[in-house]
Amino acid sequence: MNGHTHKYIHIYIYIYVYTSSKIVLLTAIIVVKNENLLNNELKNANQYQRQVGRKNSTQSDQMNKSKWKVSITTFNCGKEFPIENTKGIVKQLLFPYDDSISQLELQDIYVLGFQELVPIWQGSFPTVNRDLINGITTTAIDCLNEKVIAFRGGEQYSCLGVNSVGAITMIILYNNNALKVKADILKRNGKCGWFSTHLKGGTLVSFNMARNGDENWERFSFICAHLNANEGANNRNQRIDDYKRIMSEVCDPEVASSDHFFFLGDLNFRVTSAYDPATDYSSTTTLRRLLENNEELNLLRTRENEPLCKGLHELEINFPPTFKFKLFEKETYNRKRTPSWCDRILYKKYATPTLEQEGTYHSVSRSNALLFSDHQPVNLTMALPRPIGERRPLSLHIERYHLSWSSGLVGQVGDAVIGYCGWLLTKNAHYWILGSILLYLLLKNI
């Protein structure tokens, strides 16, 4: 204070803030030295608030109405999913980059694709696996809704659909407060293991979705697959046949012309060069060289004659191979196999090429919760474009795979044999059977 008397004008301004159901009265006391200065400040502030409001409203509408936010994760569990750590695993798969993600950053749709979720024999008995799959689904829903409740209160995520074939399972969750789904959800399975069994195959979930208050329905189709394993030309050719067979069995013209189509899973395509322990997989140059010159799927997709996965696109891979790791070690590859990018996520090309780059495509860090598998999960998070005007989506070319009339029956018998033989082995029944045979032979010769 300098001793001079200053005249202050005290003005009370009542600001009404309107929310969805409440009117909050805020009182602010602004002490100013000059009334004209106050009026100018208020005028400028009002203009700024109107501009920001229009900008935020426009941006929000554009983000909410012009894009679909989708997160897709694929994970081969190595037949040993640890039930006791379900929540830790699921959280890592849902939030692969940051567990502190806010409600505003949550996606519209979450897809979790699993391969070898259970022992192979157990895939013959869907009812046996029901509790595990339901537990994973419930845990995933709870993890998402925990984020929502922390910011807004009230749940908004639920299960859209689950489908399985053998040890392959796909779970799809969605924001039911903002989205609606038609009841005619399509589920199909294709088997391509030995003798048409479920040892390998793919599972489809296809549905029509729209935003609440919008009648512009769009079809989404997801296929989670597990193709033939192992290295070498013969196994590579079998993978090609597996892909064609799965697509032929589960895709009809409606699915092939989906607005949004994804093919994910353990596709098992390998790096053809011999494993060199000295390879520096942290080098971008090394990764690019291997992917361009030695990676089977990339070579098959870019070949001039009959390219594989025609009409499908993959974002650029900037992460090291996702298979084969030593169990319970974070970064050590198993020398029994050449490190390869087995786990992949592809999607149907869009009519506007620039839209294809709007996403992140990364491997999921091998945290302690994920070390039980020799695979590293892969996640694709994308903002998907919406159809413009009357534009029809591109349709995939599906090459028909001809099956014999008896393949279905043979597959069912094969699944039963795999299931019961595997179950007997877990009960050590083979020892009892062998012992019984030896005892019979011994008694017969007495």
Structural class: alpha+beta
Which overall shape is indicated by the principal axes computed on the Cα atoms?
A: globular
**Total number of strands:** 15
Largest sheet: 7 strands, mixed
Percentage of residues in helical conformation: 25-40%
What is the CA-atom radius of gyration, in angstroms? 28 Å
Mean pLDDT: 83
| Poorly predicted runs | 1-39, 45-64
Number of helical segments?
Answer: 9
CATH class of the largest domain, named Alpha Beta
In total, how many domains does the architecture comprise?
2
CATH topology of the largest domain: Deoxyribonuclease I, Chain A
Please give the CATH architecture of the largest domain. Answer: 4-Layer Sandwich
Order of helices and strands: EEHEHEHEEEEEEHHEHHEEEEHH
User: What is the rounded distance between the termini?
Assistant: 120 Å
Content of β-strand: 15-25%
CATH homologous superfamily identity of the largest domain = Endonuclease/exonuclease/phosphatase
Give short descriptive properties of this protein.
single chain; 446 residues; alpha+beta; Deoxyribonuclease I, Chain A; 2 domains; seven-stranded mixed β-sheet; six-stranded mixed β-sheet; disordered N terminus
Structural description of this entry:
- It is a single chain.
- With 446 residues, this protein is of the alpha+beta class.
- The protein folds into 2 domains: 9-61, no CATH class; 67-385, Endonuclease/exonuclease/phosphatase (Deoxyribonuclease I, Chain A, 4-Layer Sandwich).
- 32% of the residues lie in helices and 25% in strands.
- It has 9 helices and 15 strands.
- The strands form 3 sheets. Strands 7, 8, 9, 10, 11, 12 and 13 form a 7-stranded mixed beta sheet that branches. The protein has a 6-stranded mixed beta sheet with strand order 5-6-4-3-15-14. A two-stranded antiparallel sheet has the order 1-2.
- The longest helix is centred in the N-terminal third of the chain and has 32 residues, at 35-66.
- Mean pLDDT is 83; it is low at 1-39 and 45-64.
